[in-house]
Amino acid sequence: MPAEVLARTIRRMGRRNPNACSAFTVLRLRVPASVSRLRIEPRRTGAMIGSLGEGEPEIATGDAGFDAHWRVSGPRPDEALVLLSPGMRSTLVALRASLARRAGAG
Question: How confident is the model at residue 2 (pLDDT cuts 50, 70, 90)?
Answer without folding.
Answer: low
